[in-house]
């Protein structure tokens, strides 16, 4: 057994002996360490200033075949203030209208309004009534037999012997 262990150890040692330690040279020497030098960051040019570009648009769709009814309009002064609204026809027939404003100070604010539509009908469960037809065939009436069995359970009397009193057969040695 010891010979097998020695053979395995020699094989492992010879396998590791084939590969030498990596030959690399560190970028810095350990005793006199200095951090690598990086170039100074480049100065970025400021973002160019553009002239305000105000805009105004609106559109509307009214397609009777697909029931696609919607519209939108929006206005911007070019300096970050936007005001607009849009509306659309909902599936229940109501019209949803959203009026909104947005700016750099207050953010986006919207007011939603729903108008029109139909009221869903109230539902009440139908009243149940028995069928009004008479079947063509009716089964004969069945009645249970009118007899009672003659067997009755026996009545048991209490036992006639008395319970034994407990008396130890030995005398305790306390």
How would you briefly describe this protein structure?
The protein is mainly beta and about 170 residues long. About 10% of the residues lie in helices and about 25% in strands.
Explain the overall architecture:
The protein has 1 helix and 5 strands. The chain is mainly β and 174 residues long. Strands 1-2-3-4-5 form a 5-stranded antiparallel sheet, with no helix packed on it. The radius of gyration is 50 Å and the shape is flat. The model has no long low-confidence stretch (mean pLDDT 79).
Ordered list of secondary-structure elements with their pairings:
Layout: H1 2-17, E1 55-63, E2 68-76, E3 82-89, E4 94-103, E5 107-116
- Class inferred from helices and paired strands: mainly beta
Kindly report the average pLDDT value: 79
Q: Tell me the radius of gyration.
A: 50 Å
| Tally of individual helices | 1
Order of helices and strands: HEEEEE
Distance N terminus to C terminus? 69 Å
Helix content: under 10%
Work out the strand percent.
25-35%
The 3D shape can be described as flat
Major β-sheet profile: 5 strands, antiparallel
Query: What ranges have pLDDT less than 50 throughout 5 or more consecutive residues?
Result: none
Strands, count: 5
Question: Largest sheet, order of strands side by side?
Answer: 1-2-3-4-5
């Amino acid at each position: 057994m010891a010979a097998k262990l020695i053979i395995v150890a020699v094989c492992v040692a010879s396998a590791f002996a084939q590969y030498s330690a990596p030959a690399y040279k560190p970028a810095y020497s350990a005793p006199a360490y200095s951090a690598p030098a990086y170039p100074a960051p480049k100065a970025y040019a400021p973002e160019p200033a553009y002239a305000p570009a105000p805009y105004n648009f609106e559109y509307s769709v009214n397609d009777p075949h697909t029931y696609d009814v919607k519209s939108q309009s929006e206005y911007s002064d070019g300096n970050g203030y936007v005001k607009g609204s849009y509306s659309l026809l909902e599936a229940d027939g109501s019209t949803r209208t959203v009026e909104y404003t947005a700016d750099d100070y207050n953010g986006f604010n919207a007011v939603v309004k729903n108008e029109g539509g139909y009221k869903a009908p109230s539902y009440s469960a139908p009243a149940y009534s028995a069928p009004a037809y008479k079947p063509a065939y009716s089964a004969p009436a069945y009645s249970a037999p009118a007899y009672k069995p003659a067997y009755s359970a026996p009545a048991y009397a209490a036992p006639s012997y008395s319970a034994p009193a407990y008396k130890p057969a030995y005398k305790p040695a306390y």
